[in-house]
Request: fold
Amino acid sequence: MTTITLVQGDITEQSVDAVVNAANSSLLGGGGVDGAIHRRGGPAILEDCRRLRAGHYGKGLPTGRAVATTAGDLDARWVIHTVGPVYSASEDRSALLASCYRESLRVADELGARTVAFPAVSAGVYGWPMDDAARIAVRTVREAETDAEEVRFVLFDEEAYDAFARQVR
Ligand code: AR6
Reply:
């Protein structure tokens, strides 16, 4: 049984087994959640990411997929990097966004992570409307078959928190 919890705050301050990063395909950093995780988690995360790029992920991590690294100095054991789709008004990419949550939880299960913190993937730089991002996130986690005991959505501002709260209610 997975419990969904909501927190308004900074995902880099969470004590969980795994923190999910809203990354990009390069895995080499960026702004938003990605920038915050690398800043606070320190260089060990980027070192792991470079190793992944030198190995199995030479072309980068495809959209909708997930891969784990160390969590460096974060109060977590792993960072699970996932690449959300860029929002498009003309093309329905919601299956890819749902895949981010499903794949991240699959990786979490492989690792044995029981508490997993997610940001609102794609709802920042990638432009996904928050209400729809929240709907897809909550529905996908509810429907996922996972050993995770807690899935914690960590929402940066009140608007995002309220959007997720409407879905969880
Ligand atoms: N904790 C929790 N949520 C946060 C934090 C934080 N520290 N910082 C931002 N958010 P984004 P995306 C919220 O842009 O849309 C990066 O450059 C933010 O307000 O981080 O998937 C990557 O490298 C928004 O609601 O992710 C990619 O290139 C949500 O997290 C690209 O951005 C997601 O915003 C990915 O864009």
About this structure: Helices lie at 32-41, 43-54, 94-111, 130-143, 158-168.
